[in-house]
Amino acid sequence: MHAKFLQTAILSALVVTCAGHWAPRPTPAPSHPSSDFINYTTVTGFFLQDESSTDPGTFDYTATNFGLINRTYPTDNECDKSFTQWQKFEHYVDTLNQRSGRNVDYKVLFMGRHGEGYHNVAETYYGTPAWNCYWSLLDGNGTIVWADAHLTPNGIAQAQIAAAFWASRITLQKIPLPQSYYTSPLSRCLATANITFSTLPLPRSQPFIPTVKELFREGISGHTCDRRSNKTYIHNSFPSYKIEPGFSEQDLLWRAGVGEVNTDEDIRSKTVLDEVFGSDDNTWISVTSHSGEIASILRVLGHQAFGLNTGAVIPVLVKAVTIAGTPVATATLPWTTISTCSTVPPLPTVT
Ligand SMILES: *[C@@H]1O[C@H](CO)[C@@H](O)[C@H](O)[C@H]1NC(C)=O
Ligand SMILES: *[C@@H]1O[C@H](CO)[C@@H](O)[C@H](O)[C@H]1NC(C)=O
Ligand SMILES: *[C@@H]1O[C@H](CO)[C@@H](O)[C@H](O)[C@H]1NC(C)=O
Ligand SMILES: *[C@@H]1O[C@H](CO)[C@@H](O)[C@H](O)[C@H]1NC(C)=O
Ligand SMILES: *[C@@H]1O[C@H](CO)[C@@H](O)[C@H](O)[C@H]1NC(C)=O
């Protein structure tokens, strides 16, 4: 929370020049994550995806301004008449941060699911039962490879739709652009983030340099599509990306034959959110990840379940309150054993 302190200190310094009173600088809190507990909540009422009446199955983020609800905010009277909905929302969120205590932090996470990968196509082709018990455990079928699956042409097109939609929001809405970018280390996300953001007219102060973070990866299912490539390969494929410190050369988390359970995935989702919130001063954050992992993050944020189609994006206004003291740790559970098929399952019959 050191970062938040600095922000508050700068703001109090600004207050001094305006209001003419000076509070002594408090000593920064030691930034030992283990001595702080961050409690996350989703602030609802701002996005359609927060409303129980919205159907995730038919929801189209590109038809709804990313889901931003047309409404007023208490800070609208400080905004120019020409402000768009996104500009008014930006001012509101920035004001929330300025007026909140130093233990309270608001961020808007734009979480994007990767475009369609070869594993998605194969699961549809073979059917989920045969995929789970047999095909998902192989690297591919001789025609296509789905180990650390790449994007299909359709998946590339979905990421291009996201890119075009961001471009339209910049022009029409002057949307607040991400100030930081994070991505899962799996190839389909590395490529989706690149296609979505690399061609946008970004301000020089906010370049697209994503940080690859191990724990934004998909649920570690034991399927080869969820086993990542090595660090050298990631670096060589996307040389402009930053790879977080401590990222291992080989994938040390994936294990054949067993799958991470939701409880454990939620523990690591909380860990990766704590890393981001504990070290990143920025408010507007892009995360490129996966359906299962975004579902887990939404659980940690107390957001309603909201399934994303391949290539879709969900924004969430997050309130993070740092509470001193060690939290009660959630116990991890053993991973589940994958049940395998002893013979090659037949293709699904056409009905
Ligand atoms: C986190 O915040 C929510 C909402 O304010 C509250 O209900 C919950 O008790 C808090 N959890 C902890 C561990 O403080
Ligand atoms: C908000 O209003 C605009 C203009 O009236 C409209 O085009 C848009 O669809 C509305 N968005 C939502 C999410 O209702
Ligand atoms: C491999 O899977 C793809 C679909 O994922 C399918 O189109 C192709 O025919 C399969 N190849 C073989 C050899 O079965
Ligand atoms: C990133 O995306 C752009 C635009 O689609 C493309 O031209 C470029 O080759 C991609 N870079 C990598 C490293 O894949
Ligand atoms: C990394 O992965 C690439 C591509 O699969 C492979 O050619 C290379 O030998 C690997 N390097 C290491 C150090 O594992």
UniProtKB/TrEMBL annotation:
The keyword Signal applies. InterPro entries: His_Pase_superF_clade-1, His_PPase_superfam, PGM_Phosphatase. It holds the Pfam family His_Phos_1. Keywords: Signal. SUPFAM superfamilies: Phosphoglycerate mutase-like. GO terms for molecular function: phosphatase activity. GO terms for cellular component: cytoplasm. It comes from the Eukaryota. Residues 1-20 form the signal peptide. PANTHER family: ANCHORED PROTEIN, PUTATIVE (AFU_ORTHOLOGUE AFUA_1G10590)-RELATED, BROAD-SPECIFICITY PHOSPHATASE YOR283W-RELATED. This is Phosphoglycerate mutase. The lineage of its organism: Eukaryota, Fungi, Dikarya, Ascomycota, Pezizomycotina.
